[in-house]
Automatic annotation (TrEMBL):
Single GO MF descriptor: sulfur dioxygenase activity
Identification of the protein by name: Glyoxalase II
Entry cofactors: Fe(2+)
Key words, A-Z: Acetylation, Dioxygenase, Hydrolase, Iron, Metal-binding, Oxidoreductase, Transit peptide
Pfam families with a match to the protein in the record: Lactamase_B
Source species, domain of life: Bacteria
Presence of the UniProt keyword Nucleus in the record: no
Record-annotated Metallo-beta-lactamase domain positions: 14-173
Family classification: Belongs to the metallo-beta-lactamase superfamily. Glyoxalase II family.
Species: Vesicomyosocius okutanii subsp. Calyptogena okutanii (strain HA)
Keyword Nucleus: no
PANTHER family: PERSULFIDE DIOXYGENASE ETHE1, PERSULFIDE DIOXYGENASE ETHE1, MITOCHONDRIAL
EC number: 3.1.2.6
A Gene Ontology biological process term: hydrogen sulfide metabolic process
Amino acid sequence: MSLLLRPLFEKTSSTYTYLLADMKTLDAIIIDAVDETMQRDIAFIRELGLNLKYIIETHVHADHITSSYLLKRYFTQAKIVLGSVNEIMCADILLNDGDILSFGVYTLSAMTTPGHTNGCMSYVVGNQVFTGDTLLIRSCGRCDFQGGSAEKLYDSIQKIFTLPDETLVYPAHDYEGRTMSSIWEEKQFNEMIGLNVDKQIFVSRVNKIKLDLPKKIHVAVPANQDCGAKKL
């Protein structure tokens, strides 16, 4: 068995797209694909001769437009996947906690991890977890729009922390050039929630964060609620 994992970076929003494939069957999935880098992703999938089965979103993003809809036009057999809380009509599959998708001999297990938004999901593949904007490297997602809740975010990260310490963490963003972490590292060194910080302190830390809204939020959210089709 041979699992291909390729983190692919979009620099404007500092977003990581993840392409995973079983290199024996060539079945593949892509997580958090971005409109601006769609042609790169298509070329890479075609170069490797992959059969794209699932186009997966961790949540409805506010800082970029997804390429889900357009990718499905190129790879017509692929299915668009989100968490069921999102109730996105353009999705082919809406996942609940514990649901499983297969690609080749590999499985993806869905975890509901609300907090950054109410519809956030994380996905476990083997000893890897793709955490979206829920758990970042040494940080966590903001909670001040799209039904965000610092209390829910704390519970979601604690849920992620039940994974084995050696599990590798792949977030949707990093602004320092880092590509991955581990559950053990984040338990020890995460500045927001590491070292068993209690819920009250975490909530206070998160709620003190004051950031400008994402520049594309008023365009990206409506577009992403239609899987990126509204950009056309």
